[in-house]
Amino acid sequence: AAAFATTALARARVRGVAVRVLIDDFDVRFTRGGAAPALRAAGVTVGVFNPPLLPARWSAIHLRNHRKILVVDGTTGFTGGLNIDARYWRPDDPAKAGGDLHARLRGPAVAQLGEVFAEDWHFVTGESLRGEAWFPTPEPSGNTPLRGIAAGPDERGDRLRWVLQGALHAAQHHVRIVSPYFLPDAPLLAALNAAALRGVQVDVILPARGDLPHVDWAVRANLWQVLEGGCRVWFQPAPFDHTKLLVVDDTWFLLGSANWDARSLRLNFEFVLEGFDPAIGAKLAEAAETRRRRARPVTAAQLATRSLPTKLRDGVARLFLPYL
Predict the structure, then answer these.
(1) CA geometry: angle at 84 spanning 126 and 94, to 5°?
(2) pLDDT tens digits, the chain, 324 residues: what are they?
(3) How far is CA 219 from CA 26, 186, 320, in A?
(4) Cis bond before residue 108 (omega within 30° of 0)
(5) CA 20 to 30 Å from 141, out of 79, 167, 196, 320?
């Protein structure tokens, strides 16, 4: 974790601020120098989500909390794709800092972030975060309709899939997708290609080189299905961009923690923010366009020139698509 965040949270605790930090077990178990020990040493209350401590729970090892939520005084919220990770802050070499997109919120939508966090916190610790201290009466702020969507294996129905498919089916002019991992399943592939076939311009903007090589291999084995359907695919150069953004017709937008893959659709606990606003939509569309302009186009013909060993490797990686 970024040391400045750990320090800031510890200082808040010293000032008498009630601080609760929820970290997924994957970070605690597999990230060297994770934040939990330092935070606990500073007196910050830390919860660890879903540690598979007993053999009976090992089957739940894939159920990870991928949400990125920060709520301050119940009045200001932050959500998006940004992790509190030193890779995003490189004061020694800013050009190598990872890219992402995060939103700052005020108004009633903040309570939706707080409710999702409180539910997760209660599941992990048994503590109930209620009352005016955690949920003050929201004050109106702005005129943008926003909706927070919590998705996960504990929810009824495929909320995230329904939102994505609904947006693609409603698109009339332009769909812009920015994602670090792009492995849509058959229903989403059909929705993407159906949009392209009816004349909607579909742009998919991905990293040329991701942070997980085996996912890159699977992505390349899967891309022909959208390219042949008429979608345009672009590869961004380094540094790695972790942005998760969908903009439809420069008006409707979705941003948050979810990727276009089976893990986000079926296994992870995710949180995304849906909004409808021409002004904000135009700004987010421009953010996607900025990424596209620095990217290079990818064609089915280019993918077909991969060597046979490379195609075999990529195809084997694609077999694990339900868990990637």
Answers:
(1) 175
(2) 568 888 899 999 999 999 999 999 876 666 665 678 888 888 899 999 987 665 555 667 788 999 999 999 999 999 999 988 877 777 777 777 789 999 999 999 999 999 999 999 999 999 999 999 999 998 888 899 999 999 999 888 789 999 999 999 999 999 999 999 999 999 999 999 999 999 999 999 999 999 999 999 999 999 999 999 999 999 999 999 999 999 999 999 999 999 999 999 999 999 999 999 999 999 999 999 999 999 999 999 999 999 999 999 999 999 998 887
(3) 23, 14, 11
(4) no
(5) 167
Q: Are strands 252-256 and 245-248 parallel, antiparallel or unpaired?
A: antiparallel
Long-range contacts of 23-30 (CB under 8 A, 24+ apart): 23/47, 23/48, 23/49, 24/48, 24/49, 24/50, 24/64, 24/65, 24/66, 25/49, 25/50, 25/51, 25/52, 25/64, 26/64, 27/1
Instruction: List 227's β-bridge partners, or say none.
Output: none
C-alpha distances in Å from residue 321, one per residue of 110, 152, 234: 34, 18, 21
Other C-beta atoms lying within 10 Å of the C-beta of residue 292: 18
Domains of the chain: 3-125 (3.30.870.10), 147-323 (3.30.870.10)
Q: Look up residue 110 and give its amino acid.
A: V
Calpha distance 276→295 (Å, rounded): 27
Tokens representing residue 296 in the block: 């290079």
Instruction: Quickly count: other Cβ atoms within 10 Å of residue 297's Cβ.
Output: 12
Alpha carbon 71 to chain centroid, angstroms: 17
* Both structure tokens of 13: 């605790």
CA gyration radius, the chain: 20
- Please list the active-site residues: 66, 68, 73, 242, 244, 249
Cβ within 8 Å of residue 97, ≥6 positions away: 87, 88, 89, 90, 239
> Could you give the CA distance from residue 81 to residue 243 in angstroms, rounded to a whole number?
6
